[in-house]
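Person: At home tonight, work slowly through the protein below, taking as long as you need, and write a paragraph about the fold.
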Amino acid sequence: MAPSFDDANALIDFVVRDGNGVKGLVDSGISQVPQRYIQPPHERMEKVVESSKDGFSSVPIDLSKLDGPDHDQVVEAIVKAAETLGFFQVINHGMSLEFLESLKDAAHRFFALPADAKAVYLKGVSPSPFVKYGTSFAPEQEKALEWKDFVSMVYTNDGDAQQHWPKECKEEAFDYLKSSIEMVRRLLTVLIGNLGVTLDDSILESLIGMKMVNMNFYPICPNPELTVGVGRHSDMGTLTVLLQDGIGGLYVKLEESKLDGRKEEWIEIPPIPGALVINVGDSLQILSNGRYKSAEHRVRTTSKQSRVSVPFFAIPRPTAKIGPLRHLAELDGGAIYREVEFQEYMSNFFGHAHDGKKSLDFVKISAN
């Protein structure tokens, strides 16, 4: 018989402090989700359906054509996606299908470990402050928890990664990070170049000085209509590279547009074998003075099969100053966002539960 998790403190102890995670709940044999995971009605995803707007989400961009006669068309597609949805998919990015499958296998390998083997990476006891195993996003701040476990690996140097990243996944995660950095460099050359700036090493390092690989695990959920895998949010960094598995469940908010009569809606980013998902983060929206859109997105749960995803986050270094490019602010008649040290922005981001794109309000300049 499954244990009872009606007591909120006992639940937090079991899931968060003892490191059992959501997977531990499912493995205990629960037949319905505990109350702490039930989202308020307006946050539930049972009414979300896949959009028919294929041009926004399901036509991948071929990065191999950046080096050929179709260069200008590829640049146009990348820029348009960054300016509208903030999400796009890429193929021929330099990572083989076999490698991407091995990366998903590595994620499953880690989360299949016994709880005590994963708990050694809990915050406060992990052998490295740059490796963290946890669950949900901000359990202490959330009214309703997210149905997700994760392991986060921040890159500092090769030696530290080899010594401290979990052995079940470190080789694949390390190779993924290295390949993603090269792809992000190419994409930022396009996106920053479109803003009238040549991407040199100093600008690149300020924009992606912090690099992180996460592995996310979304266990089977007995009541997916009541829960979310990840709540509404945008990413805080510059660009995110995401590997989905074939199960799907990633949804992006398409903003209302009065210019073309488009209504606000949530559309699914469908899994495409061999493709990677790219999304714009808050830092790039700030840098571009709002020209590029950090995408508000969320993840649904499923009762059919456990799901994994592997994001690589390219993030400004903590001491970097982030703010609109000066010439863009002049062209636009003023900056939309104030300049801030990224550490401040990051502290604010992690200090609150997911709530759409409200993290940007921290730096938004109020209109007089």
